[in-house]
Amino acid sequence: MSNFKPSITVLYFAAASTTVGLTSEVVTIPQSGLPLASLGDLLISLHPNTQLKKVLECSQWSVDAEMVDDPEKLVLRGDEEVAVICPVSGG
C-alpha cells in the first residue's frame, strides 16, 4: 500500500490572503478525492478563529486557472491549483 497522500495548492488573494496570512499553502486531501464544494469547510478547519468563512461566502473558486461555476460537480483528485477569488471592488 502506498503512503501517497494527494494534495492541492490553494492560492489566496485579496481578503482571503489577508484573513489567513498566507498567499498559498499545500493542503492534503482524502485519497478518495474532495468535492470542491467541501474545500471551504476544510480550509476553515485549518484556519480557525479567522474570518475565512465570511470571505469564502462571497468568493468564487478557480481550478487550474479556470473559473468554476458549479463546485458541487467538481472533485479534486490531487495536484490541482485552486484559487480563492474574492470579489473586487472598483473605485
CATH class: Alpha Beta
Q: Give the termini separation.
A: 55 Å
- Topology, number of strands: 7
The fourth-level CATH homologous superfamily is Beta-grasp domain
Taking Cα atoms only, what radius of gyration do you get, to the nearest Å? 13 Å
Largest sheet entry: 5 strands, mixed
Helices and strands, in order, run as EHEEHHEEEE
The proportion of strand residues reads 25-35%
Number of domains: 1
Structural class: alpha+beta
* Annotated CATH topology: Ubiquitin-like (UB roll)
Helix content: 25-40%
Poorly predicted runs are none
Name given to the CATH architecture: Roll
Summarize model confidence as the mean pLDDT: 94
Instruction: Please count the helical segments.
Output: 3
Instruction: Tell me the strand order in the biggest sheet.
Output: 2-1-7-4-5
Protein model, in words:
The chain is an alpha+beta fold and about 90 residues long. It has one domain (about 5-85): Ubiquitin-like (UB roll) (Roll). About 25% of the residues lie in helices and about 30% in strands. The chain is built from three helices and seven strands; from the N terminus they run βαββααββββ. The protein has helices spanning about 15-20, 35-45, 50-55; strands at about 5-10, 25-30, 35, 60-65, 65, 75, 80-85. The strands form two sheets. Strands 2-1-7-4-5 form a five-stranded mixed beta sheet. It has a two-stranded antiparallel sheet with strand order 3-6. The model has no long low-confidence stretch (mean pLDDT about 95). Belongs to the MoaD family. MOCS2A subfamily. This is Molybdopterin synthase sulfur carrier subunit. Pathway: Cofactor biosynthesis; molybdopterin biosynthesis. It is found in: Cytoplasm. One of its GO terms (cellular component) is molybdopterin adenylyltransferase complex.
